Each structure stands twice: as C-alpha cells, then as structure tokens.
Amino acid sequence: MLLDACLPKTTPQPVFADDADFRLLNDFQRDFPLVTRPFARIAGELGITESDVLSRLAALRDGGTVSRVGPVFSPRRVGASTLAALKAPPDHLDEIAAVVSAHPEINHNYAREHDWNLWFVVAAPDAVALARVLREIRRETGCPVIALPLRVEYHIDLGFDLAGKGRTASNVSYGPVEPEVLSASEVAVMGALQAGLPLIGRPFAGIGKRAGVSEAVVLDTVRDWLARGIVKRFGVVVRHHELGYRANAMCVWDVPDALVDAVGERLAAADGVNLCYRRARADGWPYSLYCMIHGHDQAAVRAQLARIVAQCGLADYPSEVLFSTRRFKQCGARYVAERPS
C-alpha cells in the first residue's frame, strides 16, 4: 500500500518528453471530447496518430503521472463522503495506514506532520455506509478517528495548470446539498466509469459493455452529469507529486462562524490556492477553514502561504500547517461497487 515511503526532497526533471506529452497532460484535464473516438479527436488537435495518443497515455498512467482519464465527481452530489483523520502511534503508522487503505471506500490516504498524523477521504454510496467504514477503521486500528464533512465549497478544482495561464474561477457552493438520486442505468455507468476510461479507440463503447447499456447512453449520461454538476470535470487526472509538486500543505484556520464565509471567499480567490473549503469542526480539532497549497518544495509553499495570509487578513486566526510526508493511496472515489472489466 505504501506508494511514497518518503517524498523526495529534490525537484524532478519534467515528466513530459515533448510538446505532445505536455499538451496531453495540460490541455485535456477538462473539456475532454465526449465523442465516440475521443482519442482520435485529441490526436487531430496534437498532430499525431490515435495510437500514439493511446500509447503515450498508457505510458504516463503506468509511470504514475496520470491517475486515470475520466470523471471527477462533485463532493456531496452523489453518495456520501468525508475527510477523516486518525492519531496513529508513529512506530505503527505504516501498518495502520495499510489497514485504512485496504478499504475500497478510501480514495486518498496521506501521512501529515501533526499528532493527527493520518488523513484520508472516505466515499461511500450513502451516509449509512460511510458511518460503517469509519466504525470499522476505529475498531480495526484502535485509534481515535475524527470525521470532518464538507460544509461549503469555496473553490475545488483538482486540476493543475502546467502552462501558468491562471486558474479557473471560484464557484462557491453553499450547503447542505442533497445527493442526486441516480437511475439504475446511471448507477451502472458510474460503476463502470469511476475507475476511468479504458485506453482503447472507442472507450465509451467499452464502458457501455461493462454497464450493460449502449455507447450513446454512456455519452449522454456523462454530458448530463456535467450539465447538472454531478461531475465537476471530465478528462485527464494527473498526480501532482509526479509532476514535480513535491510539497503539499493542508492549511487550516479557526475562523468564527459569522466570518468564515467571507474569509473563505477571499482565500479561494488567492493565487496559489488549489482547494478551499469549510468543514465541520470536531472534538480536538477546532478548525473550520481549509486550503491546499502545492509547490516544488516546502520553502516555496511557505513563501506562498505567507503572501496569502497577508493578502487575506488571516494572521490573527489560530492556524496549523500540515505538510504531507507520505502518500499511501491515491485514486478516484468509488461510490458504487466496481464493475468487472
């Protein structure tokens, strides 16, 4: 389960070999062509062949730079999910992390510099299943666990602009939001699609075969999910660590409830903020406002954070900065049982 026993301190060489690799990673993180032969459409834009696109994406996926090509589902719009944290004895962190990662409902699992030293995201079909997973983790590990469900999305993008042209606009979403009720065919498509598209000429036909529906139904479903906001974006999903963003910090503040939304919207608009949201507080964890900052090293992240704190007037609020030290698991959320290939 351990992916990165210790995050390297040096900045890697660029992972893209040429302009086509760069554009595959940068240009198609969103606005992916929803057509019967999407990789042929991409090939036409890049001036290469469809087979070349497929082989490049396969190599980038196998090398870890690309997690998958597929949907990023919006938090709270389907199923149930939460960020959670656990206090593990440092001498047993690896084995406890393996227990947590073994649950298929866990899609991210990171060690961070804090007494609450293991942070993970749980996604499940519903709130009952979510609570069950958290109970099982408490029982199996014997460790204190806190759940920190999302309350407000100030800015959640999850893409990485490699060209430095700027980020997408913040789109604040205040809760509570009721999960969408999906039809049987939508659930089947989600089960087949949540791990990503197969890297074949007609990937949506392949998804349809797994789900027991037609290629046209799959394409119509994805388009509808994007229009309804169930899917935040559809395209190439990259891993920041392999792209050279070796340092990532979860920054948290205890902002009074009467002020947190105004402060959160300012924070979300700041350059360098990849994610910004409000979460529920928990016993032993008083923080409500979160943001994520990624950089090539810790010094770059700390410098960016100092600018953000000054710009947003955050200096007077109690805060913590939790750098990640190990990545145990990173994949897409699984909201329904996996469909076999």
From TrEMBL:
Its EC number is 4.1.1.111. Pathway: Porphyrin-containing compound metabolism. This is siroheme decarboxylase. It is an enzyme of class 4 (lyase). Pfam families: AsnC_trans_reg2, NirdL-like_HTH. Keywords: Lyase. The keyword Lyase applies. It comes from Denitromonas iodatirespirans.
